[in-house]
Design brief:
339 residues, alpha/beta, eight-stranded mixed β-barrel, binds ligand C2E, binds calcium ion
Length: 339
C-alpha cells in the first residue's frame, strides 16, 4: 500500500546540521468520498483517523469509520468535562475495607475514586483515569484524592479510640510520582489534615518502580524517613525480575487478584500465592491479598499466613456513609456514632 511506503520513507534517518534525525509519522485515511459534500469534511475525518493512529502508538495507519467518529468525540467530550469536574466537585472517594486475617477486623481502607458525572452517571476509574493521566489532569486530581483520603481518615481516627489505628491506602499514578515536589505535597497534606504519617500507605505499581528506579529510590528515602509506607500494587503482574523488592524494601505487597482467583479453581493450586506470601515474609514485608471473592480463598489465605485481605467477599468499595455504617457494625460502635 502506498501509505506503508510513505511511512517507510519517512522513517529513514536524515541529517540536519550534522545531526542525524529519526522521525515517524501517523497517517489517517478516508477511504470513500461518496458521503462527503466538502473537502473540509474529508479533512476533518482524516484528522480524526490520524488522531486515533497517534493514540494507538505512533507510526500507525488508521482508516476512518463512523464508529471512530463516535469514539473520538466521546473521548474529547470526556476530556473537556474532566477539566471542570474538580471545580464542580463531581469526584467522590469510595472506601474498600482491608481486613486483618489475624484479627478479622478492619485494619484500614483503600481509597478509590469515582466520578459522579452529571449526565453519564457514576463513572469508574478506568473510564476516565487514562485520559486524566494522558492530559496531566491526574496531578490536581491526585492531589485532591490524597487530601480527601487523609482528611477523612484523620476525622475517623479522632472519633473513637477503636478507630485510632485505622490506616488509608492511596493509589498513586506515574505522573504524580514524577513531580519533583511530590514529597512536599505529602508532608503538607499530613500537616493540614493532622494525619499521622504511619497511617498513610501509598500504593505504587510494579511497572512504575521498574521504569523509574532513580525517582523511586529518592522517593523511598524521603518517604521512609517521614514514616509513610509504600506498597507494591498489583504484585505479580508486572515484571519477572524481583530484585527491586530487595533494593527498595517495600513495606507490603498487594498480591494481584488474578493469582487469588486461581486459588480455588478445580485442579489449580495455591502454590504461587504461597510462594509470594513466603517471599514477602522472608523480605520482612506484609502480604495483602486483593480481590478475595470466596470463603475458600479466605480460608486458604489464612492457612498460608497472609496477613491482610481485601475483596468483594469481605466488602465492596462504598461511599463515606456506607463505610461509616460498616465501621459501626464491625467495631461495635453505637449506631449513629458518625451522625
Ligand atoms: P486497584 O488499585 O487494583 O484497585 C482495586 C480494584 O479492584 C478496584 O476497582 C476495586 O473495586 C476492585 N475490586 C476490589 N475487590 C474486588 C473483588 O473482590 N473482585 C473484583 N473483581 N474486583 C475487586 P476500581 O475502583 O474500579 O479501580 C480500578 C483501578 O483504578 C484501581 O485498581 C487503581 O489502579 C485505579 N484507581 C482507583 N482510584 C484511584 C486513584 O484515586 N488514583 C489513581 N492513581 N488510581 C486509582
Ligand atoms: Ca490499588
Ligand atoms: Ca491492585
Amino acid at each position: 500500500m502506498i501509505t506503508r511506503i510513505i511511512l517507510e520513507e519517512l522513517k529513514k534517518p536524515f541529517q540536519i546540521k550534522g545531526h542525524e534525525i529519526v522521525t515517524t509519522a501517523s497517517i489517517g485515511i478516508v477511504s470513500s468520498l461518496a458521503e462527503y459534500t466538502s473537502a473540509e469534511e474529508v479533512l476533518r475525518d482524516a484528522d480524526i483517523a490520524m488522531y486515533r493512529a497517534k493514540v494507538l502508538g505512533k507510526d500507525c495507519i488508521e482508516v476512518f469509520s463512523p464508529d471512530l467518529h463516535d469514539q473520538v468525540f466521546l473521548r474529547l467530550a470526556l476530556e473537556n468535562e474532566l477539566r471542570h469536574a474538580l471545580e464542580n466537585r463531581e469526584f467522590e472517594l469510595y472506601y474498600q475495607p482491608i481486613y486483618s486475617l489475624v484479627t478479622d477486623q478492619i485494619a484500614g481502607f483503600e481509597a478509590l475514586i469515582r466520578w459522579n458525572h452529571p449526565t453519564r452517571g457514576l463513572l469508574l476509574p478506568n473510564e476516565f483515569l487514562p485520559i486524566a493521566e494522558e492530559t496531566g489532569l491526574i496531578l490536581p486530581i491526585g492531589q485532591w484524592v490524597l487530601y480527601e483520603a487523609c482528611s477523612q481518615l484523620s476525622r475517623w481516627r479522632e472519633m473513637d479510640p477503636a478507630l485510632r489505628n485505622l490506616s488509608i491506602n492511596v493509589n498513586t499514578s506515574p505522573r504524580q510520582l514524577k513531580q519533583p515536589d511530590f514529597v512536599e505535597q505529602v508532608i503538607e497534606t499530613l500537616v493540614e489534615t493532622g494525619l499521622s504519617a504511619d497511617a498513610l500507605k501509598l500504593e505504587i505499581t510494579e511497572s512504575m518502580v521498574m521504569d523509574n528506579p532513580v525517582i523511586i529510590n529518592e522517593l523511598f528515602h524521603r518517604l521512609y524517613h517521614l514514616g509513610v509506607q509504600l506498597q507494591v500494587d498489583d504484585f505479580g503482574t508486572g515484571y519477572s525480575s524481583l530484585s527491586y523488592l530487595q533494593h527498595f524494601s517495600f513495606h507490603s505487597i498487594k498480591i494481584d487478584r488474578s493469582f487469588i482467583q486461581e486459588m480455588d479453581r478445580p485442579g489449580r493450586k495455591s502454590d504461587l500465592v504461597r510462594t509470594m506470601v513466603q517471599m514477602a515474609h522472608d523480605l520482612g514485608m506484609n502480604a495483602i491479598a486483593e480481590g478475595v471473592e470466596t470463603e475458600e480463598q479466605r480460608a486458604e489465605l489464612k492457612r498460608l499466613t497472609c496477613q491482610y485481605a481485601q475483596g468483594f467477599l469481605l466488602a465492596k468499595p462504598m461511599d463515606r456513609t456506607a463505610a461509616e455504617r460498616c465501621l459501626e457494625l464491625e467495631m461495635d460502635l453505637v449506631p449513629g456514632h458518625f451522625d
